From TrEMBL:
<feature type="region of interest" description="Disordered">
    <location>
        <begin position="124"/>
        <end position="149"/>
    </location>
</feature>
<protein>
    <recommendedName>
        <fullName>Fe2OG dioxygenase domain-containing protein</fullName>
    </recommendedName>
</protein>
<dbReference type="InterPro" id="IPR050231">
    <property type="entry name" value="Iron_ascorbate_oxido_reductase"/>
</dbReference>
<dbReference type="InterPro" id="IPR005123">
    <property type="entry name" value="Oxoglu/Fe-dep_dioxygenase_dom"/>
</dbReference>
<dbReference type="InterPro" id="IPR027443">
    <property type="entry name" value="IPNS-like_sf"/>
</dbReference>
<dbReference type="Pfam" id="PF03171">
    <property type="entry name" value="2OG-FeII_Oxy"/>
</dbReference>
<feature type="domain" description="Fe2OG dioxygenase">
    <location>
        <begin position="43"/>
        <end position="149"/>
    </location>
</feature>
<dbReference type="InterPro" id="IPR044861">
    <property type="entry name" value="IPNS-like_FE2OG_OXY"/>
</dbReference>
Length: 149
């Protein structure tokens, strides 16, 4: 049952990713054939990751917990749904900014495959509240590298 729900979620999010990519392609005047677009963003080139950061009540757990190391997404577009626990941080300049979780929203990231002028945003997860679990689901559209020239 859970697998069916996750696959259905992935299909819905992939449709959002395709719509976003088409808007980006149009805004940047990218001339892509239908075949190129379907190769770049389709259900068969996507990846769904579901993350669980467990709670901890041990004394060793005091302080800040690092949930995921600094990275960029190696995709065309990533769409993240996180719970209200939060913990996502993005790098702006040399400063880490905490992304405030907002109910019923999705976070959109351009990945490294949107090469040239656009680079993936460095981000990480630092779960501050160790008394609560944190859950997130990330759908990455992996297609081929996009050249913007």
């Amino acid at each position: 049952m859970c697998r069916v729900l996750i696959e259905e979620y992935g299909r819905h999010i992939t449709r959002i990713a395709v719509s976003l990519f088409e808007a980006i392609a149009q805004a940047l005047n990218l001339e892509l054939s239908g075949d190129q677009r379907s190769e770049l963003l389709s259900e068969s080139t996507g990846l769904i990751r579901v993350y669980r950061y467990p709670q901890s009540s041990s004394v060793e757990a005091e302080g800040e917990a690092l949930g995921m190391e600094v990275h960029t997404d190696s995709s065309v577009i990533s769409i993240l749904k996180e719970d209200e626990t939060g913990g996502l941080e993005i790098m702006k300049g040399e400063e880490w900014l905490r992304v405030k979780p907002v109910a019923d929203t999705l976070i959109i990231n351009l990945g490294d495959m949107m090469q040239d002028e656009y680079k993936g945003v460095k981000h990480r997860v630092k779960k501050k509240d160790r008394t609560r679990e944190r859950h997130s689901a990330d759908v990455q559209s992996l297609g081929a590298k996009v050249s913007l020239h």
